[in-house]
Write a structure and sequence with these properties.
alpha/beta; Spore Coat Polysaccharide Biosynthesis Protein SpsA, Chain A; 7-stranded mixed sheet; 7 strands; about 40% helix; about 15% strand; globular
Length: about 230
Amino acid sequence: MRRILCVIPAHNEGANLAAVVDEVRSRRSDLDILIVDDGSTDRTMAIVPLLGVRWLQLSDRLGIGSAMRAGLRYALRQGYDTVVRVDGDGQHRADDVDALLTPVFASHADVAIGTRYHVDGATRKPRVISALASLLSARTGRHVTDPTSGFYALGPRAIRILAEHHPTGYPEPELRLFLRRNALNVVEVGVRPRARLMGQSSLTAARLVAAAARVLLALVIVPLRRPEKETARV
């Protein structure tokens, strides 16, 4: 029987987490839930212990990538063979989790990433995202449509590698290069986008530009690195 962990990285999502957890539970009651608090300064950590979930707390804000590393290390130690990332702002629909898990369970992919730009062509890409998608498509040899998506499912091999080597900070575009360099099979799955429930997104225009700069640097550095070794279960 597969053991699936839903990792929810969260920074200042105290207003949203209860609704996110309730939605995941109502759609996929078989998922265990782990919230990783990324140095929140609001009431997040006053609320998390009341939700009946597992949780980890980072003392300082390190970025979503570092929060995911912590969550994946937990998954590896606890023997989970599948991880789903669902963000704490409510933008990811629990109804779409099944679509992400299907190719992973069928061994068609090590990683299934939700794309907001496959569904009816209804969502228009910002120019920076289009540019990032074009860069990553050219470098990876795979058609990338949503380079900033953080909605994904990971199979066993991806967990073993990313538990120690998941890119840090705001990592989604860089993650695509890393997955390709380490010969992890990636598929995109259409998901339905929606606005965050409350609050403001941390993915500002400035951070998008910074992400583009990181990708340009990674285009040079990542291909020069040796593939990473898989972390053994402990």
